[in-house]
């Protein structure tokens, strides 16, 4: 292959990035409109992480206003993420896996859940017995599954929503 020639895989990767960037742009416009309607201050940051668009609303002040958009245990954040995904779907016709974070809530939660998964994995390694965790959202379970996997163990989700939970299993 000559220099400067692109393969179909390169073109497909570029198309995916462009599509994810487009999702981020649509989401940012939608969220800016919501912030204006709610008369809240916040800056919008867009990125592409793990093959999905990631949009964050970050506070340029105390962040107390943005807490309203997170809600108790992230319930409002989850709803806003779904609404944002629907707005992207309406514009593109494609289902979006976009992740929304507000005021660093998900980033902080991801750190806490990674530690929980690692701790549960260590407990299973020492006891040899499975460990059942508390019910979690799909996002939370995914973070725990990833932490358990990186600790060299496996895990499964059991139960029905909204009481679905992670079970960490011995090797």
TrEMBL record:
Q: Which Gene3D superfamilies match?
A: 3.30.300.20, R3H-like domain
The answer to keyword Protease applying to this record is: no
GO molecular function annotations of the record: DNA binding; RNA binding
Q: Where is the R3H domain positioned along the sequence?
A: 107-171
Q: Carries keyword DNA-binding? A: yes
Q: Name one Pfam family in it.
A: R3H
Keywords assigned = DNA-binding
PROSITE patterns membership: R3H
InterPro entries the record matches: Jag_KH, KH_dom-like_a/b, KhpB, R3H_dom, R3H_dom_sf, R3H_KhpB
- Output this protein's name: Single-stranded DNA-binding protein
């Amino acid at each position: 292959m000559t220099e400067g020639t692109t393969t179909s895989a390169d073109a497909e990767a570029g198309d995916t990035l462009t599509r994810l960037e487009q999702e981020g742009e649509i989401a940012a416009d939608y969220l800016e409109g919501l912030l204006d309607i709610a008369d809240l201050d916040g800056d919008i940051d867009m990125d592409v992480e793990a093959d999905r668009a990631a949009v964050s609303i970050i506070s340029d002040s105390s962040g107390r206003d943005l807490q309203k958009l997170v809600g108790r245990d992230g319930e409002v954040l989850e709803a806003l993420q779904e609404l944002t995904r629907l707005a992207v779907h309406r514009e593109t016709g494609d289902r979006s896996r976009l992740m929304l974070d507000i005021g660093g809530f998900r980033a902080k939660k991801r750190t806490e859940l990674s530690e929980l998964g690692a701790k549960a994995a260590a407990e299973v390694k020492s006891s040899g017995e499975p460990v059942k965790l508390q019910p979690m959202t799909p996002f939370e379970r995914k973070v725990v599954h990833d932490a358990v996997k990186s600790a060299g163990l496996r895990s499964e989700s059991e139960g029905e929503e909204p009481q679905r939970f992670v079970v960490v299993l011995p090797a």
